[in-house]
Design goal:
10 helices; alpha+beta; 2 domains; Bacterial polysaccharide co-polymerase-like; four-stranded antiparallel β-sheet
Length: 306
């Protein structure tokens, strides 16, 4: 009895598969036509997409080894003065990466280098004269005015927040957990602009962290000098002078070292090859989508009629 049931189920499955292939064969011209249309559309779509180039810089965090054990009250004094005497290389590079991605830093970067038009209004790049193709529906290059339609409280000219949001989609920063190496890449229609922005980002983050440490060290030295004038303990004065020496070292390094936080190992270059779009992959996916949708349509129509 059990064997008969199994043979019956196998026969039903075979009949179902035959019927399925028969339905697909009946609609073969629909499948072929739809797949062809999708293939043509995907080719035109892939061709219409502009090339996007990527420029990448490889950076190495500059490490500093500075450690000094301080007894109780003097350790608290150093903390009040803003003096950090632990090994600070990794902490400083991690802080620099977060500052690099912050709205405040990037907003000032966008304003300083006037990136509103290249980021928000560009839609392509002319290789012949190395110029951007501007979307005239967003920005009028002749008058230099923004003409994009905006719903209040937005204005035709993009805000820093809007530009920051789009610019961050062009910038990628990652750090290898094993080696500590940092990769900073910028993507854009113009390979030359991508290279320039990558270089400027490295330059500006080094300058930002240098200025922060200079300001902190100067405030710490002022505070420590005040404490020296108020104490008569020889040991305390000696320790305070040591703290001042550490901060003076920070001032010296900040003024002398150009690559303060990140040292460039492999600088950004003008890319000769596009990073995207992957036109061949788009065409393949278009053909596959057209084939699957057409087969599904043929099967639904066949079984609905039946």
């Amino acid at each position: 009895m059990t064997e008969n049931v199994q043979h019956t189920q196998a026969a039903d499955d075979e009949i179902d598969l035959r019927e399925l292939f028969a339905a697909i064969w009946q609609g073969k011209w629909i499948i072929a036509g739809t797949t062809f249309v999708f293939a043509v559309l995907s080719v035109f779509y892939a061709i219409s997409l502009p090339n996007i180039y990527s420029s990448e810089a490889l950076l190495s965090p500059v490490t500093e080894n500075s450690s000094m054990a301080l007894p109780g009250q003097l350790g608290g004094l150093a903390a009040l003065a803003g003096v950090n005497l632990r090994g600070r290389g990794n902490d400083k590079s991690a802080l620099a990466l977060e500052v690099l991605k912050s709205r405040d830093f990037m907003g000032r970067f966008i304003e300083k280098y006037d990136l509103f038009v290249p980021v928000m209004a560009a839609k392509g790049w002319n290789r012949a004269d190395d110029s951007l193709v501007i979307n005239n529906k967003l920005f009028d290059a002749d008058t230099g005015e923004w003409v994009r339609k905006a719903i209040p409280p937005m204005t035709p000219q993009p805000s820093i927040q809007q530009t920051y949001a789009k610019f961050m989609r062009l910038v990628s920063v990652s750090q290898d957990k094993n080696t500590g190496m940092v990769r900073l890449s910028v993507q854009h229609f113009s390979p030359s602009l991508a290279k320039i922005w990558a270089e400027k980002l490295v330059l500006e983050i080094n300058e930002e962290m240098r200025n922060r440490d200079l300001s902190e060290a100067q405030r710490s030295i002022s505070y420590l000098n005040e404490q020296i004038s108020q104490t008569n303990l020889a040991d305390a004065k000696a320790m305070l002078f040591s703290l001042i020496e550490e901060q003076t070292k920070t001032l010296m390094l900040a003024n002398v070292r150009s690559e303060y936080v990140f040292k460039t190992i492999d600088p950004a270059v003008v890319s000769e090859r596009k990073a995207k779009p992957a036109r061949a992959l788009i065409c393949v996916l278009g053909v596959m989508l057209g084939g699957m949708l057409s087969v599904l349509f043929v099967l639904i129509r066949y079984f609905s009629k039946k």
